[in-house]
């Protein structure tokens, strides 16, 4: 009982048609994770792996969003505190007390470990449900948000992995010469 042959042929073909219709719709896969009450995701193609807490070694004089470095099988990787990186509106003093999971991004030459409080699932979402972020998001830097997706009971904030891995231009320590007068 419960096998496909127990159902009338009409029901079997209807189920197959619905399954094929969903498979034919363009979908995207996202690795999901949480920080505070926020639900975030990254395209699965940008994530190399997820690790439970790796030991973080602090780096003196690093940018405030750099939690330190981690050793991933002999490779030294910068650990980025998500809350500080996207300037998430919360008590950032307490973010150092969390036990983190490491979401390893690796589309660039230098992988980065993004620290998340809790790991979610890999979700498959129809591309038609993915929208640009609202222009007036408060409580975090919009430049790190690529898209959003309304899911039942929550909003998935899809982060821009490239922006998260790129140093802020203000963080380079180089003087800003874009407004300096030209020397003749």
């Amino acid at each position: 009982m419960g096998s496909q042959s127990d159902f009338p042929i009409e029901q079997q073909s209807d189920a197959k048609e619905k399954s094929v219709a969903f498979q034919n719709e363009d979908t995207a896969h996202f690795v999901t994770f949480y920080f505070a009450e926020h639900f975030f995701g990254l395209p699965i193609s940008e994530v190399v792996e997820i690790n439970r807490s790796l030991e973080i070694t602090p780096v003196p004089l690093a940018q405030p969003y750099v939690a330190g470095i981690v050793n991933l099988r002999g490779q030294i990787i910068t650990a980025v505190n998500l809350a500080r990186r996207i300037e998430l509106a919360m008590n950032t003093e307490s973010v150092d007390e969390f036990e983190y999971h490491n979401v390893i991004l690796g589309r660039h030459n230098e992988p980065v470990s993004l620290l998340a409080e809790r790991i979610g699932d890999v979700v498959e979402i129809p591309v038609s449900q993915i929208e640009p972020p609202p222009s007036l998001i408060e409580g975090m830097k919009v430049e790190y948000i690529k898209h959003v997706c309304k899911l039942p009971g929550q909003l998935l904030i899809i982060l821009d992995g490239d922006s998260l891995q790129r140093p802020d231009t203000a963080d380079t320590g180089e003087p800003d010469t874009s407004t300096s007068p030209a020397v003749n």
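Residues 26-164 form a domain with the OB fold (Dihydrolipoamide Acetyltransferase, E2P) fold (CATH 2.40.50.180). Helices lie at 9-24, 82-85, 161-165.
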